[in-house]
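Bit of a strange request maybe. I'm writing a small parser for structure token strings and I need a real example to test against, not something I typed by hand. Could someone generate the tokens for this chain?
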Amino acid sequence: MASKEADGTDWDSQAYHRVSDPQFAWGRAVLEKLALDGNERVIDAGCGTGRLTRELSARLPHGELVALDASPQMLELARTHLADCRPTVRFVQALLPAIPFAGWADVVFSTATFHWVRNHPALFTNIQRALRSGGVLHAQCGGGQNLAAARAPAEAVMRLPRFAKWFADWEPIWEFADHRVTADRLASAGFTEIDTSLEAAPITFENEEMYRAFVSTVVFRLHLAKLPEELRPAFLDEIVARLPKSPARFKLDYWRLNLSARKAGRTASQK
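Reply from user aminoacidic:
Good idea to test on real output. This should exercise your parser:
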């Protein structure tokens, strides 16, 4: 029987917390480029286990911070991880593109999340609605040709007779838009001062064990969730067998889409 995680709304949060060093490193670099006075209202959209939310909280000594995620398991671990944060972090469960705020946030911050949302026009419209006048969207996600090479063997394995029936109703699970399409979508949602770009961010694992731990938790999480548990190791075996025989065999060709934009007007702190 396929996992209850097959709909994409939940994660193995403990496993993700262990393997998410690449996402954390990318996120810290994005956060370093965000100018904060320390008194802003901020939504961390897709907070995960809260590793980066803690870094964000430290930059808001007089502000308010909402950690938003669709996954109950992620939020449960984040609550534990951030229990000692001051000011206190508020937690909200919501499945993007839905954002249950209107005119509240000075900043919507997000990393490693938006590519899991298929409807980016709705996402940007809802972010624009959640922001106060003059508020800022500052985010990064997968984009462009993200994981194109890494996904190819999985797509071949899905067609094998042993696995094909489990993927008969398979639909695209990611939205890897490029910087031009994203800029147009942000403009259509009413944003100004739009800046988007793509950058390569490949990661290579030292061995097969590390590769399998990462891709089973992140990249091929929903592929594996479609399968009965007894077939999941074999599915990964077939993927590994198709990887190039080279020193960079366990490489994932990540590309990051950077995006920032502003809602027209001025925030209270700017007046």
